[in-house]
Amino acid sequence: MRKKHVLWVASILLVLILAACGTASAPEPEEEPVQGGEDHPYKAGMIVSKETNDIGQRLLVYPSEEPVAWEDQSVEEWISKAQEENADISWYTVEGDHYDQLEVGQHVRMTIKPEQMESYPPIRFVIDLEVTPST
């Protein structure tokens, strides 16, 4: 009888040990989202306006790879032009370091957060930004 009791306890301990070993695994490292992927898409265009408001510092970017005459148009005219051409014009909020170095008329390429504030034009949030040559 004692032998059966010891065998039964040993079996239960073995099952518990095996169950615990099977569920313990090293945590998988979190992967950084790929820039330009679905998590952080790229946007590019020309800066047509800069302003600071209660949300922060932001740029109005018109999606164009070609040089356009930006000096003769107001913000309202750019927005109207974008609506007529079904262009994805947007406000992009940027940090102070980037904002101070940017000028209206420059072409930029930005990695942005997928979230945006629903307005027209939408307000998007820049993760990374680079000035690119206009073509």
CATH class type of the domain at 42-132: Mainly Beta
CATH architecture of the domain at 42-132: Beta Barrel
Unreliable residue stretches: 24-35
Task: Specify the helix fraction band.
Answer: 25-40%
Rg on CA atoms, Å = 28 Å
Strand neighbour order, sheet with most strands:
1-2-3-5-4
Q: Determine the strand fraction and express it as a percent band.
A: 25-35%
Number of strands: 5
Helix and strand run: HEEHEHEE
Give the structural class. alpha+beta
Do you know the CATH topology of the domain at 42-132? Answer: OB fold (Dihydrolipoamide Acetyltransferase, E2P)
Tell me the major beta sheet.
5 strands, mixed, barrel
> What is the CATH homology-level superfamily of the domain at 42-132?
Nucleic acid-binding proteins
| Large-scale geometry | rod-shaped
Spatial gap, N to C terminus: 90 Å
Number of contiguous helices:
3
Mean pLDDT, nearest integer? 78
Describe the protein.
The protein has 135 residues and is an alpha+beta fold. The chain has a domain of 91 residues: Nucleic acid-binding proteins (OB fold (Dihydrolipoamide Acetyltransferase, E2P)), CATH 2.40.50.140. The protein contains three helices and five strands, in the order αββαβαββ. Strands 1-2-3-5-4 form a five-stranded mixed β-barrel. A hairpin with a 4-residue loop joins strand 1 and strand 2.
